[in-house]
Amino acid sequence: MPPFTPPAYHRIKRAGSFAELVAMQFADGVNALCWPRVLPGDFAEVVRLLKVGPGVTVLGDERLQSLAASAAGRVAIDAMLADQNLLRDLGLDPVLNCIDGYPRDDEPGPVPTDVFSFHADSAPVEADTWLCTYHGAASEGLRNEDAQRRVDLPTTRAELLQLYGGADDADFHEYLHEHCYELHYASVAGAQPFGFGLHNLWRIAVDWPGSAVPPCIHRAPLTQRGDSLRLLLIS
């Protein structure tokens, strides 16, 4: 696997180590920090051995350690466990998922809110999101300049107002917030999303009160049943 090169985009900053990734600040418009890596090991073997069912399966440390993996598979397992320990040492609660399809909105309405929609993460206090895809399709980002909040699109807002059944006032804004509609984005015509790549550890900005930078807009890749399973670390 060739080394990953983050997109040439002024909101992305590259780190050379985990310590550097932790020390970096979201400032001057930068809202995505990336530590590019090529990890050793056979992650495809780990996926084959897991034999998970459809949907999202949370992988505990004991389950990974119990797999009858080859030496190369064991190297991949150790790499994923090491990443989780690094994040736990920061006081975080990372989760490793094996993903064979995400649930979709049964009735998405004017604004789809599943993970396939470009969105920003949010928090009531200062926070950020950590992501790493070890196997399968990688997460995708959208440049803030290429994104429009769906609730600001006139047609979509009119549909939401009709669904809400009231005026475009403070109560309506609270309605949008309660349903997370204001966190979802549409891409402008001609926009080119960028991939997060495999093995790279990302730290991205979320939408929280007082944040110095806009949130990083991202989504899960558009995969379907039968596609290669994803191994995703998220915190």
Plain-language structure description:
By secondary structure, the protein is of the alpha+beta class. The chain starts with 11 loop residues before the first strand and ends with a strand. 25% of the residues lie in helices and 21% in strands. It has six helices and twelve strands.
Which tags fit this structure?
235 residues, alpha+beta, seven-stranded mixed beta sheet, 6 helices
SSE string: EHEHEHHEEEEHHEEEEE
Q: How many domains is the backbone divided into?
A: 1
Q: Helical content, roughly?
A: 10-25%
Q: How far is it from the N-terminal to the C-terminal residue, by CA?
A: 25 Å
For the largest beta sheet, what order do the strands appear in spatially?
1-2-10-5-12-4-3
User: Total number of helical segments?
Assistant: 6
* Biggest sheet layout: 7 strands, mixed
Global Rg? 19 Å
Unreliable residue stretches = none
Q: Gist?
A:
With 235 residues, the protein is of the alpha+beta class.
What topology does this entry show?
Layout: E1 12-14, H1 18-23, E2 32-35, H2 43-50, E3 55-58, H3 61-66, H4 71-88, E4 95-100, E5 128-135, E6 140-142, E7 147-149, H5 154-164, H6 170-178, E8 185-187, E9 194-195, E10 201-205, E11 217-219, E12 230-234
Parallel strand pairs: 1-2
Antiparallel strand pairs: 2-10, 3-4, 4-12, 5-10, 5-12, 6-9, 6-11, 7-8
Helix pairs in contact: 2-4
